[in-house]
């Protein structure tokens, strides 16, 4: 799918905004704070079904009653999303729904300036990032993750009641065991997939012999549903004392390794940039391999963080994709 144009109304700081996109590369120029990232956010909402950075009340332009965004593809298909301070509605072919239908979702590779700090980020930041890209690899992943998180939230709420019985948690334990083991297996699969090419792609960017790898750290390694359930049951008294679930894949972490050490603290700024670039290229390749769709590439102010060699590498590796770039200067 190739985006032809996008229209915004009352979206962030845009009263109205219209962008016509090229088939290959589109550059959005402007000073910091003028709303360039908001355009990418709108595209992401209409391709993935949700924002990558905020909720609808935060997106709505201050003082307005609604926001509306519309994408038109080269095929002539149009998709709109409207938020009226209460509900968000997606419209496709005159059919309205509360969520973007799966058939209308399209894969995206998103590059934000904050991604260059991913190596040094917290476990929760790592999980958030990889949960997002793994959902692009496989639609089942986002469903499993959502069900796990809902069960976890309910269980944690019950644990705040000191009079809660062990039996009252059993159904939630079953759900956590079921979806936790599924999440573990999917995360393990996708991490292995990334590592197949991670080192080689990194070498093509950095032009050295350093070794890079993504390490998946989890308490649930090679666990079965029965074992997962047993651990939850064994931890009941401790969980009740601290009022939250102390075991599970919600505590997982993804660690970037550099020459068999954690990249955080051992890789230079330039090496870190090459690691993240390699990850983005692999992300696009895996999405294409699994979906047979070339993802749309959204690059937010990325060139200001990259030297000339890495800029050329970025352009070269995404030359067969539709790329939409924001920048404060011509490139």
Written account of the structure:
The chain has 331 residues and is of the alpha+beta class. The chain folds into 2 domains: 3-106, P-loop containing nucleotide triphosphate hydrolases (Rossmann fold, 3-Layer(aba) Sandwich); 116-293, Glutathione S-transferase Yfyf (Class Pi), Chain A, domain 2 (Up-down Bundle), CATH 1.20.1050.90. Helices cover 42% and strands 21% of the residues. A hairpin with a 2-residue loop joins strand 10 (253-258) and strand 11 (261-262). It is globular, with a radius of gyration of 22 Å.
Keywords:
four-stranded parallel beta sheet; single chain; alpha+beta; Glutathione S-transferase Yfyf (Class Pi), Chain A, domain 2; Rossmann fold; 13 strands; 42% helix; six-stranded antiparallel beta sheet; globular; 9 helices; 331 residues; 2 domains
Task: Provide a compact summary of the structure.
With 331 residues, the protein is of the alpha+beta class. The protein has nine helices and 13 strands. It has two domains: 104 residues, Rossmann fold (3-Layer(aba) Sandwich), CATH 3.40.50.300; 178 residues, Glutathione S-transferase Yfyf (Class Pi), Chain A, domain 2 (Up-down Bundle), CATH 1.20.1050.
């Amino acid at each position: 799918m190739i985006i032809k144009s996008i229209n915004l109304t009352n979206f962030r700081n845009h009263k109205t905004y219209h962008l016509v996109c090229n088939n290959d590369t589109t550059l959005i120029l402007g000073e910091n704070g003028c709303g360039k990232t908001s355009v990418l956010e709108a595209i992401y909402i209409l391709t993935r079904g949700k924002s990558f950075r905020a909720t609808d009340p935060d997106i709505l332009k201050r003082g307005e009653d609604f926001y509306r965004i519309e994408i038109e593809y080269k095929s002539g298909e149009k998709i709109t999303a409207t938020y009226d301070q209460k509900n968000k509605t997606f419209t496709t072919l005159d059919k309205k729904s509360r969520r973007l239908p799966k058939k209308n979702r399209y894969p995206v590779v998103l590059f934000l300036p904050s991604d260059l700090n991913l190596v040094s980020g917290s476990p929760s930041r790592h999980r958030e990032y990889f949960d997002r890209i793994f959902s692009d690899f496989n639609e089942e992943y986002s469903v499993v993750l959502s069900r796990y998180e809902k069960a976890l939230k309910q269980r944690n709420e019950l644990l705040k009641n000191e009079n809660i019985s062990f039996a009252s948690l059993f159904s939630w334990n079953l759900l956590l065991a079921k979806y936790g083991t599924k999440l573990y297996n999917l995360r393990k699969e996708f991490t292995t997939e990334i590592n197949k090419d991670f080192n080689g792609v990194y070498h093509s960017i950095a032009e050295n012999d350093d070794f890079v790898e993504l390490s998946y750290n989890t308490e649930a390694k090679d666990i079965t549903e029965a074992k997962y359930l047993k651990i939850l049951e064994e931890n009941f008294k401790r969980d009740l004392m601290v009022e939250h679930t102390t075991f599970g894949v919600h505590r997982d972490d993804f660690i970037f390794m550099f020459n068999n050490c954690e990249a955080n603290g051992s890789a230079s700024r330039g090496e870190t940039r090459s690691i993240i670039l390699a990850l983005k290229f692999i992300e696009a390749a895996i999405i294409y391999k699994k979906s047979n769709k070339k993802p749309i590439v959204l690059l937010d102010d990325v060139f200001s963080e990259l030297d000339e060699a890495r800029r050329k590498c970025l352009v070269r590796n995404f030359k067969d994709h539709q790329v939409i770039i924001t920048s404060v200067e011509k490139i």
